[in-house]
Amino acid sequence: MAKEINMQALIGYVLFLVPLYFITFKLKLNIMKNITISIVRMVIQLYLVGLYLNYIFSWNNPFINVAYFLFMITAATFSVIKTSNINFKYFITPVFISTFLPNVVILFYLNYFVIKLENIYDSIYVIPLGGMLLGNALKGNIIAISSFLSDLKNNEKRYFYKIMLGANKIEATLPFIRNSMVISLNPTIANMATVGIVSLPGMMTGQILGGFSPSVAIKYQLAIMFGIFVSQYLSSILCIYLSLKTGFTKNDLLKENAVLVEENYG
Question: What letter does residue 258 receive in the DSSP assignment?
């Protein structure tokens, strides 16, 4: 079993953030406010999660577990839209569907066919495994949709030229889709190639600290790594293709204000 962490020691550990704030201030990175808000939110959210997960795990009610997973999907959807600086009205549907569909399918396939749970809605599997899938899908969607729309806006003349030559919307955007997919997937591909050598994955580390044998931890880690890659891949490509339907006009033009002006935070 993992050893208890002393709260005073944890607070002392947080002091490592002080030099980071100093460097951020000196370099005028304009992310000071974002860093502070994110850290405060992380602490509050994790503290609250620790409190109510105790109740969720003790109740282990299928309806509550599924409802909480849907809440996680909704939160991930809003996070993708906000972080990507895209218009909520145009992209809420593609982002939600691309976050919901692959992750639900992968999670319950994993629980039923791979882990072979009697109760596939068991909270100790649905919430942690679902969280890992969603976390990576969220990052993939942010990178994919942001890079796709940014690349498209920066190369509008190239896009319009192909449209005028008779290409349809998908044909004209295909180079941008390819580029954004590669950018989105590269970190995960690099992580898979170096896992166990450069880094020991979080799930495997957690299970070993929890008292499981390394052989069991490896099997779970392999299962979740495959799931993460598949869900991130499908989420990213689905998000882009669905956005082609909602983010463009009937004349195949990117809708006005589809991409919002990014705010600077000091």
Answer: S
Separation of alpha carbons 172 and 249, rounded Å: 15
Instruction: Name the pTM for this structure.
Output: 0.87
DSSP string covering 79-143: HHHHHHTB-HHHHHHHHHHHHHHHHHHHHHHIIIIIS--SSTT-HHHHHHHHHHHHHHHHHHHHH
Question: Residue 259: what are its φ and ψ, rounded to 5°?
Answer: -105, 125
Domain ranges of the chain: 1-60, 61-246
Residues 62-111 pLDDT 10s: 999 999 999 999 999 999 999 999 999 999 999 999 999 999 999 999 99
Q: Whole-angstrom Cα distance, residue 87 to residue 155? A: 20
Altogether, the residues listed in the chain come to a count of 266
Nearest to 233 by CA among 222, 221, 225: 225
89 close to 260: Cβ distance less than 8 angstroms:
no
Distance from C-alpha of 91 to C-alpha of 84, rounded to nearest angstrom: 10
pLDDT digits (tens, 9 = 90+) for 158-170: 999 999 999 999 9
Using an 8 Å Cβ cutoff, are 58 and 40 in contact?
no
Q: In angstroms, rounded to a whole number, what is the distance separating the alpha carbons of residues 235 and 217?
A: 26
Quick one: pLDDT band at residue 207, thresholds 50, 70, 90? confident
